[in-house]
Amino acid sequence: MKKVIVTTTINAPTKAIRLFDAMTDWELLVVGDLKTPPDYRLERGTYVDPKSQAKYDQALSDAIGWNCIQRRNIGLLMAYDMGAEIIASIDDDNVPLPGWGEDLLIGREIEANYYETTLPVFDPVGATNHGKLWHRGYPLQLLPKRDYAAKTRRPVKADVQADFWNGDPDIDAICRMEHAPACQFDDAFFPIASNKPAPFNSQNTFLTRQALQQDFMFPQIGRMDDIWGAYHLQAQGFGVVFGKASVYQERNVHDPVVDMRQEYLGYEHNLPLVEALAKDPEALLAFLPGRASWAFNLYRRHFPPT
Hints:
Blueprint: E1 3-8, H1 15-21, E2 27-31, E3 46-48, H2 50-56, H3 58-64, H4 72-81, E4 86-90, E5 94-96, E6 109-115, E7 151-157, E8 160-167, H5 173-179, E9 192-194, E10 204-208, H6 209-212, H7 225-235, E11 240-249, H8 256-277, H9 290-300
Parallel strand pairs: 1-2, 1-4, 2-3, 6-9, 8-11
Antiparallel strand pairs: 4-10, 5-11, 6-7, 8-10
Helix pairs in contact: 2-3, 3-9, 5-8, 7-8
């Protein structure tokens, strides 16, 4: 089975990228940007420079724009072209823990802690030993209503495995400013699944080849880029299972106030979006700016019609 790791970098190789590059049972694709040093090199992975990205799909490259994490979309397409059956999307500040990528939960039936909720969205972070926190992209209006009482153990089969992250977790700016957490997630709470869609990110996530065709990191919508892609993917019928922490995030420098501004679109529209997607799996397109829709359509052209 071909397995490919896709990440994005702007600066010199990070500790995380060097560790992923050393994994012999995975292939590594690193997508560069205009600020990436021209002499960037990997030991055994493949570096995709800006010129190669534009040559691969000039229109998509233009629609995504430069100096943004959404350049990763081109690497995801390249992984698909390579015949990858499992694609791992990784941020370059996520250091793999021992055993990363070995316990794959997707494409087969597994036993999970299964939560049923009457809310339109499920928050996986609240189901862990850090229950006061919430996942980036979870509608803030629903926070006081979260309830994890309806829990069973049951078999599930999913096409997306969103592994957690020790250290500085993927929470929104409001949660980060309030709690400033340093997390150690207890493995006993995982795997986690639910009867409702849940936000998941692109920083430590495994996808099957089929799920990749509906996944996308949207440009022009700030820090909802991967979150709205996650909601759209689940609206298409793909399920997600949340795995135990398999990386330690040594988070790149962020200004939480800047992050909050980049998340505002989600604060306002996450709840209406998931409600709309429950009625129409393509409803996301009505929430997007024109350039984001254009980029998504160009991305989907690379796959066979369903």
